[in-house]
Amino acid sequence: MPRRYLVLRTDRTQRAFLTRELEQGRLRQGFGWRREHDLRLLRDQVRAGKKLSEEEASVWRNRRLLDTEPDGLKPGNVLILPNLLDQGRWALARVKGAYEYAPIVAPGREGPDYGHIIAVDPIRTPAGKVASVEAENTHVDAELRATMRNPSRMWSIDALGSTVEALVHAIESGKDTWTPDPETQKAEGFFTAVRDAAWKHILTKYKGNELAHLVHHLFMCIYEGGRVEHWGGAGERGTDLIVYTRDPLGLEYKVAVQIKQNDGLHDDERTLDQIEQAKELHKIDAGVIVTTAEATSNGFEEKCAALEGRLGLDIRVIARGELIELVMKYLGKARMTVREALIDLLRASTPTPEPREHTAVTDRIYDELQRLPELERQIAGTKVAHQNRGSGIHLIRVELPQEMIGAVVEPIAQSIVSCLRRMVPSAKCQRGKPSGTTKWMVVDTLLELA
Predict the structure, then answer these.
(1) Which residues form the Restriction endonuclease type IV Mrr domain (predicted)?
(2) pLDDT by residue (tens digit) across 124-150?
(3) C-alpha span between 200 and 248 (Å, rounded)
(4) Is 222 exposed, middle or buried (0-12, 13-18, 19+ CB in 10 A)?
């Protein structure tokens, strides 16, 4: 049987305790504190066709720790253990023996836990010390760094087996694997500055529900060829966005997207309730939680894993760092073609009796309008709506808060119309006279496609 390679995350709040256990050849995993949580007992129940309780189903998600499972850990498998020795660094280990179960009281805990145990041989330096690997070290392949963005608790990296073996060889040969590469440090400093600037822009330009505009546009780029529908607001029924995408055979899948603005750790369990509601009402196939929090709490991760097991679907959490990287990766390229893409979106839209907000067309226009200097202070309250009137006629309606624009209606209206003309230069553009109410100033523009 070929050797396998996997990444296995552990509880970062118990790093010191789990490191001491690793040094003694025991790799411990949490979510196991009762006798009934022994994976061997749960395996026997599953094989006998017995239904697991909700708690047992959550524990059973650790089944790959069993060597009796087809995709379980086997002696000789090589594991990468991120953030175990130190934050941002990795330990490596070879699986040595079969699964055992023995809960223990960890420091600071009132009761036992971490009962799932795999016997391992940590990869050590020639001096016998458990090796510490710096992710930005010159001996670490870039693909290994990239795979660590996966938020799952355990996943296979068999395709990177040769790079893992090269890293093991470097450790056991006494090479320095704990010092960051100077050139990498320099480049990382540059990208950190870029990421910080991107986050500052998101923080200042997208408040409250406006973040949905950005995420809507982002997912349109990620799921190229699919469609993204806006469901946010009072009638969202468990989701802010729904992504419709098809596999190579043409089968459609629905992904619910919940968008949350948080600081620090994301610990909002209502998000999981909303995903469950979306499963019931929208019949989704997967869920995505986009949060501006820096990370998720251990309690949230455990409840998320339990919900995945109970609903039988994958739930992906995208926290602040990954959100910024996705924005830079996808929207940076999309910005190059936004003008060309808008005319395609207009032609692909369907006629509607009234102007609609939060469509693919309005999100593209909103993205462009926020770059206008005249709207720098007004964009936070700006609304964009689109109506396909048929026969190639499209109404674009932009509404601005009356109290914010003051006496500069005409310059702003002219900038909006000029922006639309630049975005669809092949269309006939007819500007309507700005009209106002006590709350809103409305700028209507008719685009007639050739």
Answers:
(1) 205-326
(2) 999 999 999 998 888 999 889 888 887
(3) 38
(4) middle
Contact 413/432 with Cβ under 8 angstroms?
no
Beta strands in 88-195 (DSSP E): 89-101, 116-122, 133-134, 154-156
Residue type, 201: H
Helix count and strand count (H, E) for the chain: 15, 20
| Size of the chain in residues | 450
Is residue 53 a contact partner of residue 34, using CB atoms and an 8 Å limit? no
Helix (H, G, I), strand (E, B) or coil at 128: coil
pLDDT bucket at 234, cuts 50 / 70 / 90:
low
Side-chain-side CA neighbours of 15 within 13 Å: the count stands at 13
Nearest by Cα to 63 from 79, 80, 96, 40:
40
Residue 391: closest CA among 343, 351, 428? 351
> 1: Cβ–Cβ under 8 A, 6 or more apart, which residues?
74
d(CA 38, CA 68): 14
DSSP class of residue 107?
T
Q: How many Cβ atoms sit within 10 Å of the Cβ of residue 104?
A: 15
CA distance 169 to 335: 44
> What tens digit of pLDDT does each residue of 299-335 get?
888 888 888 888 888 898 998 888 988 888 887 655 5
pTM of the entire structure?
0.49
How far is residue 394's CA from residue 120's CA, in Å, rounded to a whole number?
A: 65
Q: Residue 113 and residue 10: Cα distance in Å, rounded? A: 13
CA 423 to chain centre: 30
Q: How far apart are CA 381 and CA 404, in angstroms?
A: 9
The encoded tokens of residue 413 equal 């209206």
C-alpha 229/C-alpha 216 separation (Å) is: 8
- Both tokens assigned to 255: 């992904």
Contacts of 414 (CB under 8 A, 6+ apart): none
Taking the C-alpha atoms of residue 432 and residue 441, their distance in angstroms, rounded to an integer, is 12
- Degrees to nearest 5, angle at CA 62 with 57 and 63: 85
- Name which of 405, 411, 341, 360 is nearest 379 in CA terms: 405
Which phi and psi (to 5°) does residue 195 adopt?
A: -60, -40
Name the nearest CA neighbour of 375 among 140, 210, 216.
210
Q: What is the pLDDT of residues 81-112, one digit of tens each?
A: 998 888 789 999 999 999 999 999 998 888 99
Give the separation between CA 209 and CA 363, rounded to whole angstroms.
13
